[in-house]
Specification:
This protein has 95 residues and is an alpha+beta fold. The protein has three helices and six strands; from the N terminus they run H-H-E-E-E-E-E-E-H. The chain folds into two domains: 33 residues, no CATH class; 57 residues, no CATH class. It is globular, with a radius of gyration of 14 Å.
Length: 95
């Protein structure tokens, strides 16, 4: 998973090498720190109008209309909660 993130950051920020390296370092540190160190309210994944957000030991997937992500945090009001996924303790290390 970390390799996919690094590949995406390399592609997206190839014209801004300093920012790309900083983003890769930050992503690596967050990944290595594990699930518990990841802040509640952080966006885990986005796809179209669907956004997954960390909440405690769960991931909440929202359907959104007008929203943005600022510094990894979701800004906007959800239309509805699509699903809540509980993350088992065995899956939290190195998430």
């Amino acid at each position: 998973m970390l390799e996919k993130i690094i590949t995406m950051l390399n592609e997206k920020f190839s014209s801004n090498k300093g920012y790309m390296e900083s983003a890769i370092d930050e992503a690596t540190n967050i990944y290595n720190a594990g699930w518990e160190a990841f802040e509640d309210g952080s966006v885990i994944q986005m796809s179209g109008n669907f956004v997954a957000v960390k909440s405690g030991n769960s991931i909440i997937k929202y359907e959104m209309k007008d929203f943005q992500v600022n510094s990894g945090k979701l800004i906007g009001d959800p239309i509805k909660t699509v699903t809540i996924i509980e993350i088992p303790e065995s899956k939290r290390a190195g998430f």
